[in-house]
Amino acid sequence: MKSHINEDDSAGTGSLTTEMPNKGTTWISEIVDMILNDGDIERCKRGPIYERVPFLEFAGPKPLPVGTEQLANMASPRNVKTHLPFHLVPKSFWEHDCKVIYVARNAKDNLVSYYHFDLSNRIQPWPGTWEEYLEKFINGKVPFGSWYEHVKGWWDQKDKHRILYMFYEDMKKDPKQEVMKVMKFLEKDLADESVNKIVHHTTFEAMKANPMANYTTIPEFFFDHKLSPFMRKGIVGDWKNYFTVAQNEIFDKDYQKKMAGSMLPLLVNT
Ligand code: A3P
User: Fold this and answer.
1) Is 22 in the pocket of ligand 1 (CB under 6 A)?
2) How far is the CA of 231 from the centre of ligand 1 (A)?
3) How far is CA 243 from CA 32, 37, 168, 230, 265, in A?
4) Which residues have CB under 8 Å from 204's CB, separation 6+?
5) CA 119, CA 126: separation in Å to the nearest integer?
6) What is the structure's pLDDT at 13?
7) Partner residues linked to 164 by β-bridges
8) Could you confirm whether 200 is annotated as catalytic?
9) pLDDT in tens, 209-243
10) Which of 4, 83, 150, 201 does the annotation list as catalytic?
11) Nearest alpha carbon to residue 247 among 162, 88, 134, 81
12) CA-wise closest residue to 80 among 72, 88, 23
C-alpha cells in the first residue's frame, strides 16, 4: 500500500484523523487543516473538506474524489481521514510512523447521529426504523462494524504508535484546550491569536454555515440534507431524546458486558 504514504515521509509528518463515522471526523479534520495552515481561514476555504482531506477508503460515485487517487497526488504533510478499525489500517502508516488522531464519542450519541446520517446518506444501506437501527448498532451490523470493537481496538494501540486519543465530549467542553493538544501533537507552535481563530472557525455554528465544511456541496443523490442535515445538532446528550427507558436499560446492560475489562473511560452516559 505504498501509494498511501510518500517515500519522503520518513519523518512521519503525515497525519491520519480516524474514528467510527459520526463521532466528529469532519470537526477534527477541519481543526487539523487549520493548524497545518497556521490558522489561515481563507486558505482553509480552498475547497470542500473532502477535497482538502482525502477519505482513505472512499471510492464512491463521481463527482466525489477517490481517496487513494487524491493521496497519490498530494505532498506531505497530508491530512487523511479514515473510519477504518485499527486492524484494517494499511501497515505503511505504522512503517512510516504516521501520527493518528482518534476521536471517540459517547456510544448513544454516536448511534443517534449515525442513524440520522444513514437516513440522508444514499450510498449506505437504509437504516430502517429507530428500533431496528438500535439493534443493528448493538450487534455491530452497521457500516464499519462494531462501535465497541472500534473504540477498544484503537484504545489498546494508543501507546504503541503515535496516536492521540480524543473525546468528542472533551472537545465540546473545552475546545481551546483540545485544539492546543492537537497543535502540540502536530508539533506546531501557533500564537494565541491563531489558536482563538481556529477555535472560532471550528465551532459547530461556524462549520454549519461554512459550505466548505458542511457537505452541502455534495450532490443530493449522494446525501440528502433535507432528510437530515449533515451538521445536525452537534451536542452532547441528544440520545436522551431518542432512547426509551426500556431501550436504555437494554443498551446499558449490553454495554457493560461488551466493555467489561476495558480501561477506556466510560463512554455511555454523558
Ligand atoms: P450530530 O449528528 O450529533 O449533530 P462525522 O464527521 O464523524 O461524520 O460526525 C458528524 C457529527 O459531528 C454530527 O453530529 C455533526 O453535527 C457533528 N459535528 C460536526 N462538526 C462539528 C463541530 N464543529 N462541533 C460539534 N459537532 C460537530
Assistant:
1) yes
2) 6
3) 33, 41, 20, 21, 22
4) 27, 231, 234, 235
5) 6
6) 46
7) 101
8) no
9) 999 999 999 999 889 999 999 999 999 999 999 99
10) 83
11) 134
12) 72
Sole residue written with cell 484504545: 155
Rounded to whole angstroms, the Cα distance separating 181 from 206 reads: 21
H or E stretch including 102? strand 99-104
The low-confidence residues of the chain, meaning pLDDT below 70, are: 1-15, 18-19, 269-270
Angle at 191 between CA 187 and CA 194, to 5 degrees: 100
**Quick check: helix, strand or coil at residue 92?**
helix
Residues, the chain: 270
Report which of 12, 17, 10 is spatially closest to residue 164, judged by C-alpha positions: 17
CA of 236 to the centre of ligand 1 (A): 10
pLDDT score for 153: 95
Element (H, E) at 240: none
Domains of the chain (ranges plus CATH)? 2-105+145-223 (3.40.50.300)
Separation CA 78–CA 56 (nearest Å): 11
What are the two backbone dihedrals, phi and then psi, of residue 245, each rounded to the nearest 5 degrees?
-60, -40
